[in-house]
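Structural prep section.
Before we set up the soaks we want a predicted structure of the protein with flavin-adenine dinucleotide in place, mainly to decide which crystallisation condition to try first. Input record follows.
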Amino acid sequence: MSLSKLRAGIAKRTGGDAGNFGALDVEVREEFSSVVLEGRVPDWRLKVELGWFAAGFGYKGVVNDLEVEGIEEERLAPSFPAGDRPLEGRSFDVAIIGGGVVGCAIARELAKWKVSAVLLEKEEDVAAHTSSRNDGMIHDGFAARPGTRKAAYNVRGNRLWEPLAGELRIDFSRPGSLVVFGSSAAKAAYPIMAARAKENGVDGWEFWSRKRLLAEEPNVTDGQHGAFFLPSAGIVSPYRATVALAESAAANGVEFSLGTCALGLEKEGGRITRVLTNRGDFRAAVVVNAAGNWSDAVAGMAGDRFFSLHQRRGVEMILDANAGRHLNHIMAMPSLLTVNRKTKGGGLVKTVEGNVLVGPTAAEAPGRENYATTAAELRELEKHLRLNKKLSPSMVITYFAGVRACTYEEDFIVERSERVPNLVHAAGIQSPGLASAPAVAEDVVRLALEALAATKRVSRNAAFVAARRAAPELRRLPFAERAALIAKNPAYGRIVCRCEEVSEGEIRDALRSPLPAASLDAVKRRARPGMGRCHGGFCTPRVMEIVADELGIPLDEVTKKGPGSRIACGQTKAGAEGGRQ
Ligand SMILES: Cc1cc2nc3c(=O)[nH]c(=O)nc-3n(C[C@H](O)[C@H](O)[C@H](O)COP(=O)(O)OP(=O)(O)OC[C@H]3O[C@@H](n4cnc5c(N)ncnc54)[C@H](O)[C@@H]3O)c2cc1C
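Run finished without errors. Recording the tokens verbatim:
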């Protein structure tokens, strides 16, 4: 750690020398073992590059407060207007902030203990942000830089997911991942790749000759020189996994407060005593920060912002479910020599439903929740289609974007706060955060229980039920079982979404689950109506009617994803008595 060297380096990068400290107005100082950058720079890229540079100096964290010309600083705001205050005056052992896969995995792990816990999620449902905007890949652990927390959590998480998926009753498969050698130079990197996999403790890897590659992946494009095969790579549905974790936690006693934004953390004697939210203020003995792209802001609420985040956007294309039959493995092109050290590099992933995801891209850009896609990003993705002879742009159903929450150290933060003893961070959980979530949850719960030990003796929850009660998915059932269910409940016989074959009964189940859906997106995450080729073109009005019926609200109050997203704004043909025509 040398502040003078860091200052000199920053001065050089901002157009000056250590003497005049750069042509730009950038200040560097040390605060609580972290380095703080302040001032103004002309573009976002430079801001991020200065943060990365500062991260190389061994400080605990980089707080990058550089302003960028023309870009407003984002402020955390509740998605729901102030209204009822059900949390007011209550008291919990643990409050988890954030209902992504990390927060929900923590909630379920915590349910194994006799504690009162609440999870706060500012949106109308869990998995509303990055946890539903990713590849669903349970990475093998090869891509993470050796020695990082990411590498260790990834490998442990990979081992935990298969039994966990069994308990949650969600699909999990291990197709394995192929890093295809596009040249003899890439093939020559195999020993380096194998050494890295070994260092990370990855569960198995193999060299595949060109002949083996063609035998196992017949549609791979011509001219490949073989592949590096990682059999432990798996896949899950990321949004279904997150919902299942949440449902299991809820069924085991964790309270979920949706539409609830943590807005402040009050402290007494250095410890957090109260959590302030738009739905009431309450006491919490321990607070867990699992707030994804806002985790630096939440740390700041407790006076513990020793790190800051930058956002790395990733755009993906979704191909039709028919595309899946042309692909047997997860596939990527880059060799170790060309992999950008900050990202795996993208490729082709066959989802558990049989669609193919193409991507993601990786671009530094402002916007913690900026999910727009651009034509240039989509064009960039087409290069991955060239890995497989049968895939083409005509198979694209739609596109989406996600935003990775990255620290400047490019590693996860999983620790008990050094300054606030009853705060635990699960922050900066960028990729492979989905794969790592169960392992991160184990450690966070251990740390939370240690923090709780100051006020309470905690014992195991003997009543914890690991097996989740999952609603039936009719299209997967044998004919006789389907017929029996339909005989009991005719709503299972009425197909609403023709593309994905989802019945009215399944949609009603989603609206009555242990964590009930209350919007179209939430129904989609649980039962998948609208996920097929027509993308809800046919079934949306019918799904809206079922949602309105179950929630007991008028049709024009049904939302896509909570406040500000009503789908209907009124009746087009109101008769004399305002009835439908
Ligand atoms: C394009 C893309 C592809 C990826 N592919 C993979 C992959 O294949 N495999 C893999 O392992 N990882 C992948 N990742 C990474 C993975 O998606 C993330 O690491 C993971 O989803 C992070 O989960 P999280 O719970 O930390 O964050 P999030 O899912 O963002 O959840 C945080 C939640 O906190 C809530 N919140 C924030 N502030 C507050 C507040 N003040 N009060 C209440 N709630 C709050 C937010 O609304 C949000 O729902 C990918 C990421 C991207 C962008």
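Observations: The mean pLDDT is 94.
Flagged for discussion at group meeting.
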